[in-house]
Amino acid sequence: MSLYQDVIIAGFGGQGVMLIGNLLAYAGMEHGLNVTYIPVYGPEMRGGTANCTVVVSDDAIGSPIIRSPKSLIIMNRPSLDKFQPQLIDGGVLVVNSSLVDPALADASRVRLVPVAANEIADSLGNTRMANMVALGAYVEATGVLPLSAVEDSLGHVIAKHYSHLIPKNAEALRAGAAAVGKA
Amino acid sequence: MSAKRIFIKGNEAIAQGALDAGCRCYFGYPITPQNDIPEMLSSAMPAAGGEFVQAESEVASANMLLGAAACGVRAMTTSSSPGVSLMQEAISYMAGSELPGVIVNMNRGGPGLGDIGSSQGDYYQSVKGGGHGDYRTLVLAPASCQECYDLTFEAFDLAFKYRNPVLLLGDAIVGQMKEPVTPRPALPLDPEAGADWKLTGRGERAPRILKSLFLDDGALAGQNLHLQQKYRSMQAEVRYEAFETADAELIVVAFGSIGRIAKSTVRSLRAQGFKVGLFRPITLFPFPEAELRALAGQGKRFLTIEHNLGQMVDDVRLAVRGLTDSDFFGFLPGNMPTPEDFDAPIRAAVKGA
Amino acid sequence: MQEQLVFKRPDVLADVPTHYCPGCQHGVVHRIVAECLEEFGVVEKTIAVSAIGCSVFLYNYILVDTVEAPHGRAPAVATGVKRARKDAFVFAYQGDGDLASIGLAEIMHAANRGERISVIFVNNTVYGMTGGQMAPTTMIGQKTTTCPGGRCLEREGGPMHMAEIIATLGGVAYCARTAVNTMKNMAQTKRAIRRAFATQINDEGFGFVEILATCPTNWKLSSVASNERIGKEMIPEFPLGVFKDAAKEDES
C-alpha cells in the first residue's frame, strides 16, 4: 500500500499555519518521501484566513493543489466554515477546540480530532505554540510520519534567532500528540 | 539518494539553478509572482562573484542581458507576463544578433495587468517568437521545483549551443510551491564557449560586430535562412513526459503546472478503469510534434487542457493533422485549478469516442 | 624635397569613405573618439555600443568590437557589457532621438547608477536617418517633417537640455557640452572626450559628452550655413561648458 496524505492547514494570519505546513513538508522530505507545499497568496488571502496545502507521498506527486483534502488542520472558526465541506468523507479533521467549538464539526461524516491547542500551549508557557500542538495531534492522528521526524526538522524551519525555542516547540508537538483521544 | 535534497520554492530553484550553472550576471525588475528570484540573487549573485542589477524597467533589464550575452557571459533576467511583454524588443534583437541569454517568465493572469495568479496565457507569445520578426526561442516549461532547477541549469547550455535566447515558461503555481530539489554540482564553465564570436575587446584579432541589421541586397534573406535552419536543428532538443500513454485510448496533453495537476486526475480515472494517459511537453519550442503524431497514428484521441482559452491546442492539432483532432478544455486564469476541475472534461472526452 | 607626414589618420579609424552626408559632423566626432581611444591605449580592450540612427554604422568606421543596441537602449546594453567585462573599455555613441527621447530612461538610470561607461551624445536637433522628423532637441521654430510649421513651445514643448539634466545625477563623474564647428571647439571636444574616458579608466563614475553637430541634409542648409547655424542658433540655446567634473570638485 503506497503512502499518500494531503492536508490543508488553515487559520488566522499569525497563527503560524505556514510554519507548520513547512515543517510537515520538510519532515516528510527528510523522511525520504516526496512532498509539496503550496501557500495561498494574493486575493485568496483576504478574508481572515491563511492556509497552505501539504502533500506527502512515496510516489511522484501530481497536483500540489487539493480541493477535496483527506485531512484538515483547522485553527479558527472561519477556516472550519470554509474547508470542512471540502473534506472527504471519513477524512481527518484536527480542530483547535480552544477557538472552535467541536460541536460545529460534522462528526458523523468525518473523523474529528479536537485538541485544545491554545490551552495546551499556554500550559507550556507560550500560546504562540498552539500551531505546534495542533501539528503534533495531526501527526499522531494520521500516522503520516513518526513524530520524531517532525521534531528533528524543527531546526530547519525555525529562524536561527529563535533556535532557543526549539526544545519548547518539540515539547508542544509531543503534548499535541499526547492529547489525541483524550479530549 | 545521492546528493542532499533542499526544500525550496520553484522561484528559488530557478535562482539556484542559474547560480549552479555559472550564471554570473542577473538583471531584473520587481514584479509579482517572481520576486523571490531577484530578492535571492541580490545577495547570492554578488556572493558568487557575479553582478546583480535592479534595472529601471524590464526594457532595460532585457537590454542589459543583451549586452552581457554579447560578452559571452552566462546571464539571465526574470519577470512575469507584463514585464516579459516589455522585453520582447530585446529578445528579438538577441535572436537576430544570435546572442545566448536566459529569460524566465513566471506567467501570471492577463491580458493587461490581469492578476497575480497563475496562468498559461503567454504560450503564444513564448513559442511563436513574441517580438517582431521571424524568430523562435527555445521554450522550456517546468512542472516541478526540480524541473525549475534542472531546466534553468540546462537553459544556459542550450543558449550557448544554439547562440539563441532560451525562455523558461513557468507560472505562479510552480514558482510559489515548495518541493525537495536535488542540486547538481556546479560545473566548471567551458572557457572556449563563444570563443569565436563573443566580444572581449578585439586585442590582436579583427574587430567583431554583433548586430541584427542586414541592409545589403540579400543579406537579410541569408540571415533568415540561416536562422530557420538553426530553429529546425533545435528539434533535437525535444523533451516530454509520457504517463500511461501506451494503452491509453484518450491522451490528455497539458504542460507545466497544469500537466502535473492533470496527472492527478489521470491517475484517479485510471484507478476507476478509464484508459487515459498524459502527454506533457517539456519543450514547448521545439514542440514534440513527431511524438504526438506517432501516438495519433496508433489511433489515440486527444484532449488538450490549458490554463487559458486555447493556445497550445493549435500546436497539438497541427501535430496530429490529417489523422485526428484534439478536444480542448480551458481552465480560466483567475481561479486555481485542482484535479477535480479536469475530471468531468476528461470523462466527457472519453465518452466522445 | 622629402615628404613629411604631419597629419595622420588614427589606425583604429577605417580608411573608407563614410555613408554620412556632405557637411555632416559625425565623421569629425568619430575621428576625435578614435584619437582618444588610441591615446589612452584602450583600442584592444574597447567594446563599443552602437545605437539606432545614422551612427548605427559606427562599427564600419571605428574598428573595435561592437554590439548594436535597440533604439535608445545603448546605455542599458553598455551596462550589461561593462558588468560582464569589467576590464573592458565601454562607450556608447548615441544621437538625440535615440538618447533624449526613446532612451531617456536608460540614459538617466545608467548615469545615476554611475555605470563605468562613457556616452558620446551627438545632438543635431533632428532625427537624421528616418528623414528629418522632430527630435526632443529640436529648437523652437525649427521646421522638421513632423513640425512643418516649426516647433511650437505650447504644442510640443521646448528642446531638452541633456547635459544639464545628466549633470544633476549622482553617479556622473564628468558631463560637458561641446561643439565641433570651429577648431577651438574641436579641441575642446577632444579635451572633454578625453576627460570622460578618463573617468571610466580611473573608475570615477559615468562620463557624458554632448556634442552639437550639423545635419545639412535635414536642415536643408549648405554645409557652411549648417556650420554657421551651430554658432548662431544652437550654442545660444545649448550653452557649451562643463556641467559636472567630480575630480575638480574634489580638488576645490
Gist of the model:
The complex is a heterotrimer of chains A (183), B (353) and C (252). With 183 residues, chain A is an alpha/beta fold. Chain A has helices spanning 17-30, 77-83, 117-123, 130-142, 147-157, 166-179, and strands at 4-11, 34-39, 50-57, 71-74, 92-96, 111-115.
Could you characterize the architecture of this molecule?
The complex is a heterotrimer of chains A (183), B (353) and C (252). Chain A is an alpha/beta fold. Helices cover 36% and strands 20% of the residues of chain A. Chain A has 6 helices and 6 strands. Chain A has a 6-stranded mixed β-sheet with strand order 2-3-1-4-5-6, with helices on both faces. In chain A, helix 2 links the parallel strand 4 and strand 5. In chain A, helix 1 packs across helix 5, helix 3 crosses helix 4 and helix 5 runs antiparallel to helix 6. Chain A is globular. The mean pLDDT of chain A is 94. Chain B has 353 residues and is an alpha/beta fold. In chain B, the strands form 3 sheets. Chain B has a 7-stranded mixed β-sheet, with helices on both faces. In chain B, strands 10-12-11-14-15 form a 5-stranded mixed β-sheet, with helices on both faces. Chain B has a two-stranded antiparallel ribbon with strand order 1-8. With 252 residues, chain C is an alpha/beta fold. Chain C is built from 11 helices and 9 strands. Chain C has a 7-stranded mixed β-sheet, sandwiched between helices. In chain C, strands 5-6 form a two-stranded antiparallel sheet. The longest helix of chain C is centred in the last third of the chain and has 19 residues. The chains are: A alpha/beta (183), B alpha/beta (353), C alpha/beta (252). At the B-C interface, helix 3, helix 4 and strand 9 of B face strand 1, strand 2, helix 3 and helix 5 of C. Strand 9 of chain B pairs parallel with strand 2 of chain C.
Provide keyphrases for this structure.
heterotrimer, A: 183 residues, B: 353 residues, alpha/beta, seven-stranded mixed β-sheet, five-stranded mixed β-sheet
